[in-house]
Amino acid sequence: MSETAGGAAAAMIEYADASAEVRAVYDDIMATRKTDWINNFWKILAHDPPTLRRIWANIKEVMGPGALDPLTKELVYVAVSVTNGCRYCIASHGAAARAKGMTPAQYAELLAIVGLANETNRLAVAHDVPVDERFR
Amino acid sequence: MSETAGGAAAAMIEYADASAEVRAVYDDIMATRKTDWINNFWKILAHDPPTLRRIWANIKEVMGPGALDPLTKELVYVAVSVTNGCRYCIASHGAAARAKGMTPAQYAELLAIVGLANETNRLAVAHDVPVDERFR
Amino acid sequence: MSETAGGAAAAMIEYADASAEVRAVYDDIMATRKTDWINNFWKILAHDPPTLRRIWANIKEVMGPGALDPLTKELVYVAVSVTNGCRYCIASHGAAARAKGMTPAQYAELLAIVGLANETNRLAVAHDVPVDERFR
Amino acid sequence: MSETAGGAAAAMIEYADASAEVRAVYDDIMATRKTDWINNFWKILAHDPPTLRRIWANIKEVMGPGALDPLTKELVYVAVSVTNGCRYCIASHGAAARAKGMTPAQYAELLAIVGLANETNRLAVAHDVPVDERFR
Amino acid sequence: MSETAGGAAAAMIEYADASAEVRAVYDDIMATRKTDWINNFWKILAHDPPTLRRIWANIKEVMGPGALDPLTKELVYVAVSVTNGCRYCIASHGAAARAKGMTPAQYAELLAIVGLANETNRLAVAHDVPVDERFR
Amino acid sequence: MSETAGGAAAAMIEYADASAEVRAVYDDIMATRKTDWINNFWKILAHDPPTLRRIWANIKEVMGPGALDPLTKELVYVAVSVTNGCRYCIASHGAAARAKGMTPAQYAELLAIVGLANETNRLAVAHDVPVDERFR
């Protein structure tokens, strides 16, 4: 298993090459998502099994069934990823949203909101607008 | 009407003191939102009527009826505002989300997703994860 | 002279209480800016004289006479500060811009551009727009 | 006309393939900018005509003649884009600035200011510097 | 126990008022940190016990004994918090770093590095510097 | 010597093609770092000799011997660069950290802290957590 440190290009760890510890996480990802493949994010995190396990446990809990429906959760994930400029995350959570039914029209609206929020966030900060009593 | 430039504290422009141009926007905000008051963001933007008019027109179009439901739109707005650290925007769009039915459980989940996305965004960027073919 | 570490509230170091090393920087700030007072940013950096000296030397060089006029330089400084949400920097460089002639109309336009750039930045990133040949 | 959602690679919509609605915007962009071509940003936004129309209307109003000269406006746009790390926007607005007369010396100064502002923004925030009375 | 949603001001949940589930986390925080009090971050997260439990479990694992010494870990935490402008996080992790031995001179150097990295990050992005072969 | 402005692709300035002014900086970089090559960041900044000289002087002072050990300084630099998404800076300072002894286990922990800090920063901001008296 190759090692990585400090931006050195890391090879993906495929299932066939993975340790039992890593395979257990891969198996849970595939079972939870009802899919038969693992995306690159996990194959790179697999160089650090404790982080692989920990981040997956967080994703499984936070993105699992709850008060918000699964599509809304992915839309929120994309909104943050666009704001931060994470190309991989936009692609992966955009794909997840499509798989959960996001239409092109919904995606267009999502991006419009994200763009506009980034604009008005700056206007509110620039003017140091005091929070209205009614919002507290 | 007071003027503002470069961080100088700006007074809010109340309806009673507003020009006809500003009142027309205030009227449209209240009619569109079916409410009888104007929040501080607009009262400060009112020092610059073209921006007041333009930003309101954008908000009205982007946040109006469309492919995403009104609550989802507000959740996305909050997600961006939290990521950018805009205190005013978190409060105002959080209040708008509550008015549209957001429950405390939904808000808790929203923040959990926003936090986690900010975490995994950095891991994906740090590792420069290549986008999977299946996501394209 | 009080010490500071890790977010502990730091007292301002006034001229009367400053060491000769710090006074030399304060004197140069006042002479360069043709003013008779020192703003809080420097009075707090003064707890760390090497940083005080270094940052002032950078500001003096970068913001001094050059290819861009002094007002344009302050406008750019404000644009970055609004984007990053630095309240102190918006206020201080906004004041500097006003002192160099910025009108309320110019400030309004500046903020409009900053807001809009923050919006279109996200749209360009979200769509991963390839750079046009003509721009290279 | 191809569709796009969630990070899926989108084809550019060329003038020859565009709907009448999209062509009308393209025509206005070329007429306003006194040019005969359309850059990729618009060709991708064209998948969502309402956003294409809306964003162009904003750009036309905000970047048009006003209190700030056209070159200063582009410099501010580049400053925000560098701060946010938007590669496309740096390239496109950098090209626009060059077309409006920006010299290499001015660009070098612009980047120096943007870099330094990003540095001092963090120092001001880290020290939680209180805003001077004189700046209010 | 009070509820919170969307920016509404939340009361802190003190130990005396906490549920058994929340007390169990508070107890583990105090035992792990060998302290007898709970800071505000946890008292507010306590409105959402699953998030309280989850975030504490992550902090306990990531900030616990490992390959990096405890002080270095806090310095890194402060560096991120300053970059993001999180006032609370700068104060809390700054205090944690002081408790672990950070001197004022070390804190001054930390902030100098954070500021400078924020500057050179923008220069590298603005120039789209290609990664050297030797760094791969 | 080629010129650059506004995102136009810049050629690297190699030692053989450099002016005496630029060579003096290159010589100091190599002597200080006890190395025989110059990385791309400096070769591009060399188009603007005053910035090359100024930024190097800052790096030399801030990253030189001091209260924090050299490896810790690089870890902090990487933490900021990951948070800002600067691919070049992650690679170059990651390589510098490896050269100073960073192990893969330390790098994994560093990234885990950076990710988690980005998460909790947003939770603290979203809840507008008041700073504890004990942290002041």
Helical fraction of chain A:
55-70%
In quaternary terms, these chains amount to homohexamer
- Would you count the extended β strands of chain A for me? 0
End-to-end Cα distance of chain A: 53 Å
In N-to-C order, the SSE pattern of chain A is HHHHHH
Q: Proportion of β residues of chain A?
A: under 5%
- Total helices of chain A: the number is 6
- Structural class of the helices, strands and pairings of chain A? mainly alpha
Query: What gyration radius of chain A follows from the Cα positions, in whole Å?
Result: 19 Å
Q: Which two chains form the greatest contact, residue counts included?
A: A-B, 66 and 66 residues
Low-confidence stretches of chain A: 1-5
Described by strand count, sense and barrel closure, the largest sheet of chain A is: none
Mean pLDDT of chain A: 94
Which outline of chain A best applies?
Answer: elongated
Structural account:
Six copies of one chain form a homohexamer. By secondary structure, the first copy, chain A, is mainly alpha-helical. The first copy, chain A, is 63% helix and 0% strand. In chain A, helix 1 runs parallel beside helix 3 (49-63) and helix 4 (70-84) packs across helix 6. Chain A is elongated, with a radius of gyration of 19 Å. Chains in contact: A-B, A-C, A-D, A-E, A-F, B-C, B-D, B-E, B-F, C-D, C-E, C-F, D-E, D-F, E-F. Chains A and B meet through helix 2, helix 3, helix 4, helix 5 and helix 6 of A and helix 2, helix 3, helix 4, helix 5 and helix 6 of B.
